[in-house]
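Translate sequence into structure tokens.
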Amino acid sequence: MTGLFAGKVAIVTGAASGIGRASAQALARGGARVIGGDRATGTANEWRADLGGEGLLRPLDVTDNAAWLDAVAEARVRFGGLHILVHCAGAVRLAKHPQEPDVVSETVWRHMHAVNLDSLMLGVRAVIPAMREAGRGSIIAVSSLAGLRGRASSSAYASAKAAILQYVKTVAKQTGEQGWPIRCNAVVPGPINTPMMGSPGLAGGPHDPWVGEVPLGRYGAPEEVAAAIAFLASDEASYITGAGLPVDGGVSAAVAT
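Result follows.
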């Protein structure tokens, strides 16, 4: 992947850990200069040392429109433009508040949609002008297998992730019709070994009920999702837009969509 992103500038949200961190590293190894955004920036020096390229980790509250505009402005001022947005930031749950449809609160519902869905709208709206100015762009959002499958215990999260898949289609439709050289796609991870999956002792182990549903018989690694993201971000995916690419070990192969 060396040189695949030479001259490109990327913003990666949720970049401090998990899929976001792996994506930032994949892009940087390909030559991109990366601005990583996250609410947790306490390991910024370690993050930069592990990046494998040029970049920085900065605070970014993805639910704050002004924070998005600041991040895009920094990309322009520090690195001269913006070509790639990878939106990995998200939340699965709010403390131990239930999400079953009969008991989910308005607070939980709105929080899940603000962090997982509204943030994407804010990000897309902020980056499109910069990408048009740069002459090209690629936007990749992270949806979830939960957006394809009904799951009562995560109704708010699942509905937000499902909406992402429709939203990237509308963005792809508009940018294409307007003749803007900006593509917009999503990846749809299944069970991936990240902190969001819960207890490290259970996740992916023999007693984890998820493993039995995965045809490949294991959890995925963040780097495997990052590889798909890097492909969609690259010019090698130049004829792909409006797509939702499953990276789920085959789980969705048995799901009617």
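Note: The chain has one domain: 9-251.
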